Structures are given as structure tokens and as C-alpha cells.
Input
Amino acid sequence: MRRWISLLPTLSMLACTQTAPTSSSRAEPKNAPDPPASIPEGKKPRLILWLTIDQLRGGYLDKYRRHFGQDGFQRIARQGMEYSHAHYGHAITETAPGHATLFTGAAPREHGIIGNSWLTPKGKLVTSVLDPKTNLVGPGELKMGPTTPPTPGRSPHRLLVPTLGDQMKKISNGQALVYGVSTKDRGAILPAGHAGQAFWLGEKGFVTSTYYSVTTPPWLEEHHREHPPENYLSAPWSLSLAEELYLNPPSSSPFRAKLLGQNFPHHFSPHISLSQQLALSPAGDEAVIDLSISLLRSEALGLDLEPDLLSISLSSTDKIGHAYGPESREFEDQLIKLDRLLARLFSAVDKQVSRDELIIILSADHGGCETVSHLRSLNLPALRLTEETVAHHVREILRDEFNDDSYLLGISSPYVYLDQERIRKKQINESLVREKIAQGLLTLQGVHSTYTQYDTQGGGALQQRVNAAFHRERSGAIYIVPRPYTLFLQNSSLAATHGSPWYYDTHVPLFIVAPGVAPGISHEQVDIRSIVPTIAQLIQIPAPAAASWPALRALE
Output
């Protein structure tokens, strides 16, 4: 239902009427910047549209610019301030830590989301948002009978600090609307924070959990009837352009996904789940955009004077990057299709919110690395390193040094976890065990460096990024940094991955389109943690509790 629209005037936004002293206008005449939207007296932005494109490395939008129309990525480039050297300041470049950092302005050592998953002191693998105390809710969920156990739900209960959306809720006494949407649960839940609402793709359609609501919202029921998930798979995944127009050749990695067939057109298969097929193709992003438009209209976002937040995390780029490699033709075609989807989204937003009341952020949760086969074809020293290989090597070290390999609790990359209780019972010096493993791992091919929880203070830039990733209770005893172009794989079937502290994984695009912020480009290096205080300044609220980085220079 549309919320009551306040008639009280708001203060004008003084903070965002200046431009960055280090910025310059864009070079290409055909893409000349649009003039910045001005802020009418007594107004402030009503809607924050935050787009996170999973595994979109910095520089990719420039690389594929020739394929894009004027109303998708190019619109953001024309209207926005681009920060061409935006990086994550922490070493663990995965989806969950990236989203948590984006929306809290804090590092994993503060927000506690140290990976997509990690081990407890008892050796149990936990994921960032799985919450057995909740159940899934949604039109695609099976109706539970008296003997059918409910499906475990999801929540932000492991996120230790507030998000921007939480702060908006607090300042507005609950009047601000905060939503997160994605095919991935963590991509929807962590941006929505503790006080918002989240929707993600379940096995048979979009769902939420009893953490947010015990019943399915009526608008979601209606959306499911109008957009059944199987409709997105009615036609094969075909190329958007003629083959000769593509920059990338067909993927040659021996690990490339075979679930949808080897070549274009990729045909959807009844032998894998609906959710898998959606996630592994551009159809997943199409489903997310359609849901976001339904949400935008049904919940009347941006229609009163209290700013709202709609986070849309688009995950198909990540799944396709993992399955085929970011150098693949599949990856390139995915971005072409995503560009057209963004144009449709922006058209829907424009019909509801005026440009002088809209903020758009576009970034990514991490970058990504190419496949080993592609890198080796360029004579680069690439390697695949699996958790099983690391575990085998650690056990050998423990047997050689202590005649007991049971001290290893497990590997959850990039961490080595030790059975601290067993070590104490054996009256072995735990520091000595850590040091022996850390030193021994340096002999393993593909390992660049290792750090323990107790030697990460100070040091150079690499050590500081590792320090920012360590959480005192959740991280493992040893952090493994792979060599550049060594893919440290949690799932050995993947063609490519990310997760390292190297430039290709930490570098992401960053665009801010906002009233009073002049279009341009800044080449200074900025930390992703600066986004939250920047947006807080734009909507005139204090930054959330754990955000300690300064706002970006465009607002000084």
C-alpha cells in the first residue's frame, strides 16, 4: 500500500552541490555527460536505486562499451560520477563479504561476514545467511503437511553491524522502505540489513523467510502468477549479436559448464533444477529485474518524502563467469543482455521517480580472474589449487611435526581451521602448530604467503587487506594468499573464480548518479567503504555505526 505522504518540507542538500576537484569530463563526444540534476528547494532524494553486479571487474564496462545502447550502462556513464579505481580494502573477495561491506561501510573484521561460508569451532560448515530458526515463505514453496519438515529459511542474523538501510529505518522511525532483491539469498539479505525486507530465488520461484513475514505478500503472489519462473526458460539462450561482432571467442576451458550444452544456442534442460538454469543464464537477471519492477510499483517506492532504498543484486554475471570464464563469449553476451535489462528498469523507475529525486549507485561485490587455460595460452603462470590439495598438505605437515594430523579441523578457503580443543587437551603449544603450518604451506605450489591471526597487525598493503578480513571468532587460524593467477577453488568443477586480494579481484566499477553531483570521472584510488557515508551524506543522515571511512570527494 502507498504510504502516507508527509507534507513537511525538507532541508536542501548542501553537501552534494560540489564536484570532485580531481574529476574530468568524459572524452567521447557522442557520450557527452548530461548536466547534473539540480535539487529543487525543500527536496531531497526519494529513492536510492543500488545496483550490484556480481563479479563485474573494473574496466569491463569500458571494454564492452561498443555493445551497449544509450539507455543502460551508457546512461549511468553519462549522468554519473565514475571512480575508475575503486577497490575493496579486504582480502576475501567473495559475494557475502562484498555485499556486507558495500552496505555497512565496514570490513569483514567488523561486520563478521568473513566468507560465503566458514567453519565453527566444532567443525560445522555454516553459510552467511542460512538460519534454521526460520522457514522459507513464498508462492513457489511446497505446502507443508503434518509430516513434511519446513524448508530452513534465511536471515541476516550473522551480520554483526547495521547497514545503510538499517540506519534509514532508525532515523525515519520505520517510515523508510528498504528492500533487497537477487537470485542469491546473500545478495538480497545482506543489503536489506536487519530491518529491511529481502526476496531471492528459491527452488520454484522467489521467496522470503519467516524472519521477514509469516505469509507471502499479495504482490509477490500476483507476480508469481504473471511471471512463472518456467516462462523465462521457454526459449534457448541465443547470442544477442552476429558472431563476428563479439570480442571474445567461444570458451575453451576444459572445466566450462556443460549443463546447458557446449555451444550457442544453449538449451535449457529438464535434468537440472529450475533455479539452477535461471541462475546459470541471463534469464536469472531478467527474472530479478521483473520482480524489482513489480516491487517498485506495488510498494510505491519513492512516492513520499522519506528516502527509500531498493538494492538489486544481479548474479548471472557471476554464475556465468564461474561456469565459462570471464573471457568467454557467454560472459560477453550476458553483459549485452544485462545492458538491455537495465534500460527497461530505468524506464520503469523514471515513470515513478523524477531524476532530481533519484540516486543510482552501480558497483560490484568483487572482480574475477580468467580461466587457467586462457591465462596459460598467454604464457602466464596460472594454476588451480583446491581445498583438498591444501588439506592433504596440512595433514602431511602435522604428521611430520607432531605425529598427529587430527589437529586439522578443516579447510574453508582461504582459511585453515584447527581443532583448538584437541590441541589444548594434548597440551601442545597452539602458536607452534599455527607457525609450523603457516611455514610449511609456503612450499605448496600456488601459495604466495600465509598469515596467522596474530601476525596481521601493520605490514604492507597486502597484510593490511588480510588483517581487514580476519574476524577474531569466525576466521580460521591461518589465512592462505594464493599467488597471482592461482585459482583457490572451493568447488573444483568451476572454470574460474575469485576470492584473492589481487588487483583483478579487488577492482570493481563505481558510478554514482545523484542530484547535484556533476558527471565526470575521478582517477584517484578509493575504498568501497566510502560509498555508505557518501550516500548517507546525500540523504542527510548520519552514517551507520560501523562506517568509519570518509565520504567521496565529489561531495566535499
